[in-house]
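fyi for ur records
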Amino acid sequence: MLAGARLLAGADDTVRVWAVAHEIGAGSRVHPADLVVRRVRFGDASDLDLYYVADQALPGGLVLGRTIGAGELLARSAVRRAGEADTERVSVEVDPGRVDPDVHAGSVVDVYLDDQGDGGGPDGRVLSGVTVLAAPSYDETYATSGFRQVVLAVPTGQVQRFERRRAAMQDPVINLDVR
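which gave:
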């Protein structure tokens, strides 16, 4: 029986790779507390090169280029070095009733635009899975403008589309839904 256990233990061809412990949005820095180790068996050994091996230190200053869901393996293609721009900061003003009071830097949100001036219903989601970079508390922003300012990390290719849709509306109203 001992020989069988040793044979099975020796046949373990899994490798330890980094996975994300919880959803993290594009533009967020990758911190060790965000990661967990998963044992994975790859059908092709060259596939291992696509991921970060947990037995090696992660390079510093990694930032997500796209949203990664809880449990997903940390793919090399999903990260970039801090300073490599593929997101832009977009500041939005949100009515306090249209954003969860617990939204904070690091939250992942979907952004909806509604045109209150057209008399119609909601116009729909315009950004999906973007990271909140800054979200001052109500006390810091609400008293001065009536709105809560939120700064988002928006993928560079989506900024112009978002700004064009917002500018085309008579009375744009922004809603943020936490994922």
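The first helix runs from residue 2 to 10. thats all i got for now
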